[in-house]
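Dear H.,

Thanks for agreeing to be a second pair of eyes. The structure we're designing against is below in token form, covering all 240 positions.
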């Protein structure tokens, strides 16, 4: 790739990251609320007759501008780093897959930290985009090896985390299992060394926080989603 092409790609990715970051605080606030409201509506029986009109709730508070700027700048920088690390070693489809995981992962991490939940629709949509992107590349080039490796890696990581959740009961939930499958897809585009590293690093990164909670004698459970994501992106930086 030429220097001008790389520069254009860096600018485009940074702008996309800035836009995604600007939307992140609001999305992270609304997504858990929407899930709670839909669950409450499903659990509440439909009344036979119309009831009193509900009073409008309090107006939504505006999110702090500083948080928007921090998220926007952070994702812009992270997008540029992803482009810089991948532009010489992989294809545009792989780059698009990792940027998809970056933006969806930032939202998932924010929600997991807030409410200890990893929304399935976000993971499913991101996995669909990654698979569709890799499948399109395989169809255009006639080479499906990267798609096959990514799919196998996603299945392997999801199966491994599911086994841990069932056998060890180590605080791993089904949301973590689904997220591991999504990250396996992205890591599989880089090869099995990245998959292995991305499966080990989350535990190493989470160990200090878990140890501190254990010493304090309180609740030892942690939101593991952010560590899964951090481990995957650390593997990206270390293996390309």
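And this is the sequence the design step returned. I haven't edited it by hand at all.
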């Amino acid at each position: 790739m030429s220097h001008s092409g790389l520069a254009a790609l860096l600018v485009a990715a940074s702008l996309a990251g800035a836009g995604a970051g600007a939307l992140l605080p609001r999305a992270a606030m609304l997504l858990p609320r929407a899930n709670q409201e839909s669950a409450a509506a499903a659990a509440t029986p439909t009344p036979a007759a119309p009831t009193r009109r509900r009073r409008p709730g309090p107006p939504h508070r505006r999110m702090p501008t500083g948080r928007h700027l921090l998220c926007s700048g952070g994702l812009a920088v992270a997008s540029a780093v992803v482009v810089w690390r991948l532009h010489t070693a992989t294809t545009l489809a792989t780059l698009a897959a990792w940027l998809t995981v970056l933006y969806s992962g930032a939202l998932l991490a924010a929600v997991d930290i807030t409410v200890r939940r990893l929304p399935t629709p976000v993971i499913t949509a991101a996995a669909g985009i990654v698979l569709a992107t890799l499948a399109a590349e395989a169809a255009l080039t006639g080479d499906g090896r990267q798609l096959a490796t990514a799919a196998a890696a996603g299945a392997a990581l999801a199966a491994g985390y599911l086994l841990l959740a069932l056998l060890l009961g180590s605080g791993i939930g089904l949301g973590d299992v689904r997220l591991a499958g999504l990250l396996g897809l992205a890591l599989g585009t880089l090869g099995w060394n990245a998959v292995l590293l991305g499966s080990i690093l989350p535990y190493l990164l989470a160990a200090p926080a878990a140890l501190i909670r254990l010493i304090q004698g309180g609740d030892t459970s942690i939101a593991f989603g952010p560590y899964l994501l951090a481990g995957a992106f650390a593997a990206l930086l270390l293996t390309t």
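Two observations from my side: DSSP finds eight helices and no strands in the chain. The helical segments are 3-43, 65-86, 92-115, 120-141, 145-167, 174-188, 192-216, 225-239.

Warmly,
E.
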